[in-house]
Amino acid sequence: MDALDLGARLAQLLATGRRVSTYKLATLDALLQHCLENPVGEHEGLRVPIPDLAERVVEAYWPQVRVYGEHGVLRQVQHTRPGAVTIPSIVHDLQHEARTWGLSTPAQLRQAEPRRWSAAVDRIAVTLARQPVFRLQKSGGREPGVPFLYDDAWLHDDVSRSTLARHDWSIDLFPGVATALARVSPLLQPVVQQWWVDDVQRHNAAELDVPDLHAFLFGADRAAVARLAPGLREFQDDRCFYCGRRLGAGVHVDHVLPWSRLPLDGVRNLVAVDPRCNGDKLATLPAVDHVRDLLARPEADLQALAAPLRWPVDTERVRSAATGLYRAASPGSPLWRAPGLYDFFDGRLVW
User: Fold this and answer.
1) S-S: 173 plus which of 16, 46, 135, 236, CB 3.0-4.6 Å?
2) Global confidence as pTM
3) What are the residues whose beta carbons fall under 8 Å from the beta carbon of 292, sequence distance 6 or more?
4) Among candidate residues 47, 45, 46, 76, the one with its CA nearest the CA of residue 60
């Protein structure tokens, strides 16, 4: 399957269809992330649990349901009656509860309060099945109504829990779709995010500063991960993970696999780094041996570092995501090694 053709078809559907909420964009972004984290053979299908998409949607809306200056909590749905339950309102309530328990990130909440997390995910999974998952392939564009990602004939806007259970609460991507989505994700994700910014502006009837709004909607929670800096610093013998220099007062915590590609906050993906390295690497994929070193860190040590903060390690998730991200990268792609220095990807994974 041609990845660019698939990406173009999705972009056409989203550009020409009517978007009355950001749900469809959130669902597509979640689907791209799932395909990156669950790499399969080029011509294989992939079963995607709708609750997995729901978890990723919670993670996406988590930073977005905070108060945005004088505008308050930003609207994500065009028309809602007062007091209506929406996906952002569920996430907002979940976030409020998390803070009462001293938790600041979805990853912490998932680990510390699994029952509360699962209850919210279940409600959102039903909404996704009845709305964006059902409609993702149906709005305008070429061959309108012809499914090209997955069979949605059994889905509708009032699909029951029993029907979802009969289908294992999952959609099955057609052969080749998962790999194509993973490959096109670096091109499609920025487009999805820009449409998301545009829709939030429209739903709030406000001219919001675009760069500031984009950072608010999609940026990592640096204050939350900064709590791990002392432990990571000690674990790394007070040296930068990338360059090995002695760390100064302004230590940063970096997501080795870039947050902008996959929002993975597990300790396995976090390192203490020199500000110069962090400022130069930005959202670039790192050199392969940086990933090898990341994954080689002892599990027991990371567990000991994470436990006092009730923070997950997520080793298997990070390992799978690394494999998916680099499989989707083209040979010859630049990989960041050090400030001003890049490798060129040779297609080999060595972890």
Assistant:
1) 46
2) 0.92
3) 350, 351
4) 76
Up-side HSE of residue 245: CA atoms within 13 Å toward CB? Answer: 14
Q: Measured between alpha carbons, how far is 229 from 266 in angstroms, rounded to an integer? A: 13
Q: Rounded to an integer, what distance in angstroms lies between the CA atom of residue 20 and that of residue 144?
A: 19
What does the DSSP 8-state code read for residue 254? E
CB 21 within 8 A of CB 76: yes
Which pair of tokens denotes residue 64? 């977005």
pLDDT digits (tens, 9 = 90+) for 34-89: 999 999 999 999 999 999 999 999 999 999 999 998 888 999 998 777 778 999 99
| Residue 73 per-residue DSSP state | B
CB distance 183 to 42 below 8 Å = no
Tell me the β-bridge partners of 196: none
Q: Name the residue ranges covered by the structural domains of the chain.
A: 3-218, 222-344
Tokens at residue 113, please?
């309060």
Q: What is the dihedral of CA 249, 313, 214, 343, to 10 degrees?
A: 70
Is residue 313 within 8 A of residue 273, CB to CB? The reply is no
* H runs (alpha helix) in 114-266: 114-130, 132-135, 161-166, 177-203, 210-218, 222-225, 229-235
DSSP 8-state secondary structure symbol assigned to residue 250: T
Spatial contact of 178 and 45, defined as CB atoms under 8 Å apart: yes
Read off the tokens for 248: 């100064």
Half-sphere exposure of 186 (CA within 13 A, CB side): 13
* Tens of pLDDT, residues 192-236: 999 999 999 989 887 777 678 898 999 888 888 999 999 999 999
Both tokens of residue 176? 């080749």
Rounded CA-CA distance 152/144 in Å is 13
